[in-house]
Amino acid sequence: VKIFAPNIEQRDxxxxxxxxxxxxKRNVLVESARLARGNIQDLAELKAxxxxxxxxxxxxxxxxxxxxxxxxxxxxxxxxxxSSTLQAFHSAKKPIGLCCISPVLAAKVFxxxxxxxxxxxxVDGRFPDAETASAIAELGCKHICKNVNESHVDKANKIxxxxxxxxxxxxxxxxxxxxxxxxxxxKLA
Length: 189
Prior knowledge:
This is GAL3A protein. The protein is an alpha/beta fold.
């Protein structure tokens, strides 16, 4: 297992205590290294031939830094290294796991694929970003409604997705969904 991140500046830095952006500037790779305890490499160095699968975490950083979804929605662009990594694994017929908001990366890079970001309606207030499912459909992909503790497997494309924090749910349910995503990726590897 190796961890990678793009060597780019963050779109912005958020003070999570206050919930607002700061004037501070940070680098995605450097910040990721802090979280990974330094055991990380530049995404530009990743070679799909050296790995059995690739997993992308989610979070607002994906929507701001790995692509421009947070600002541009379905009209977003995907970081070139993220896109080439996804394409390399797909071309090699190796599984790709995506959780939370990161399934939008597949929706942009692989038209016609199947992904989930949870539900397409804000069921009981648990899916406040349900409109993401419609945007995925507008990109020509199929959104599959799933509960937070489930994942979806697009067998044709070897893409496994789960909604994670796209659902307001207890942490153990999010953990279970991510667990199913990892298990399904490993089955495909």
